[in-house]
């Protein structure tokens, strides 16, 4: 019963080479998270559908992977229900669990469920796969990893500043040039309030975003078409013409929306963050960008987005402050702020720019060629010594043809190959071949150990 | 809409404290795997049901978590089919994917699917969760991690030896006393062949296993009841009375089953393994144990099982050699050997024996108390210096009450707390409090850095 094996579309296998690169990204991110006092948690792949449904909008509900109840799941479904052939209705009766769609909702659930064990402010990170029944396409998968870092239970803006520092440090270590764009939901609300179009936040940010492409005149025309009043459009002009440094922009915005309490609060928050950043030695450019409108139904303060400067790709990291994440689970008024690193896109950026370090020793460093039982016996104690010294090493498990063994070492990217035939054994030596240069040299065991551990 | 949040039964959240301990186990295992030249791969959580079904027996098929097809999954089901209310039949029509049940079948699928990219022998490890719709009970979960390590594409017994070395090294590093039990499927076949009861392998191993508990007489009686012939039982006596060292046992077995070619081959294999082990400096006791019958429908040579000596618990690691893992996917005659570490049981053993190291610095090492804007400003550059030196450090994000801040540091297990009030700032100093001893000392920034990095 030979089957042609394959995996579900939108999912991926990761080869050893890919794993080394992916782990390089994850390890870098984790190290920085820990440096800033964040601790990891993990939640189950499956959550109750009652936890997940209704949290991602109607479209999101459809994109949840739902798990069929075990056993005779149809026995409790009544016949008329079944005859109706309504997939959505039937789903509620034959499925109680789903795969997590993101790490945010499970985190909110975790915080509420474990609130008596958690010491707040809770600085947690979480790196796990999520699943979405999205249409797969280039760069979009049905199983992908999220790397989330959040502080919950503190409304200090120092948290925002530390997240910006984390972004700076992660991309400095990964060697990716980025720009961090910063916005504040309260400023957007202040603008909408000031021009008397409170429900138009999205239209306005879309308009600002199009400025570069279509010009001021067309943007104004579009706003009019969308029903924004002439008066409001007139008031909006200074915002659309915003220019200069972050500080200058903030001053211009203040002149327009200074009358709105919410708007002023937003400006204060952004100023405080910039003041902190001034004292820090940040390599990353931080830019106030009013077009940033991600997660608007969700974020209540700062909004972050990180873009790679040298590659055309969407944002590679993003996040913001939310004031009521846990409210849906019965714990209101807990403020938090967090960001999420997009591991897959970061991987793509690093591949395109060839940024993965070549000298990362996460694979075997030395392989002994296997010439037969006698030679094997001579090599095994040396192999044990090398491993005891922490050198990743192996011996080819059988006396296969030399070409096959060298090919194996080559394909696996092994740096050195050690050979010991009759002559070497007689002299108590090993011939060490550098697989990159092709150079060979003879060593005794002490020298071999030294060469490979230095 | 406050919901009381919970997670599906049989699944778990892992808190920061649990994550540190779990990662200690996983990191130890991974390090040893890499030391022996193994490389990691990962496969998707979801596999096509055609890959999974029929691989774990009828019972296993029932224990697979199946994923409901997306969209209007009922539209293609015909009405009469639906009216039949046969859950199993319907499942085939509304579900095409399932969660992986173990790492072995996905690995076999991986090897066949990627056979042109893989260089054999392929030494891979894989550490990922698996899911089973088993009835949850103490120590048995519906989501749990497996840590598998396999060599595929080589029938050299050196591979078996290296897996035994890996077991030895992992448990030496984790500080768990274990005994490794070794059996060989070919010896069991040889016994069954010799006594003329080829289909009775399981009955015979069960009988041998009961010897200690019920005695020789009752074991013989039970074998008779099960239909094993008097003649066969008589031939079996020397096997039942096996005693002495591993070598002595092998000699006794040889006298009984030496006439069976398969049996002799099994004895040779075990002898070869013991001869290798004699040359190695192994801390772990390796014991020939004919009662080991795990995965009999599957393993074709060596069978391994590892038990903790100081705790009453099932096997914590196990595996063996299989000659046709990839045959089901159309790639016959590829021999492999592998073992799987049971991370959850290892965790339980280490918890019971209190073996987790106390001094593992995977959490924050230093927290600055936050007394307000001025003090914060004084502390932030020092905090940056410490982090630049690789010290996991944080500052409490707001000027909360002293008691709250100290309580936070305490609960989080932070080793040191640094304080700088008016006096310290005037003198350019920090007061460092050791949270374990309660001792306090004043340092300038150079001394503080030295103290925390030594």
UniProtKB/TrEMBL annotation, chains A, B:
Keyword Metal-binding: no
The keyword Ligase belongs to this UniProt entry's keyword annotation: yes
Enzymatic reactions: tRNA(His) + L-histidine + ATP = L-histidyl-tRNA(His) + AMP + diphosphate + H(+)
Residues annotated as binding L-histidine: 102-104, 132, 146, 150, 294, 298-299
Gene Ontology biological process terms from the UniProt entry: histidyl-tRNA aminoacylation
Gene3D superfamilies: Anticodon-binding domain, Bira Bifunctional Protein, Domain 2
A Pfam short name: HGTP_anticodon
E.C. designation(s): 6.1.1.21
Broad enzyme group: ligase
NCBIfam families (alphabetical): hisS
Listed HAMAP family: His_tRNA_synth
Family: Belongs to the class-II aminoacyl-tRNA synthetase family.
Full protein name: Histidine--tRNA ligase
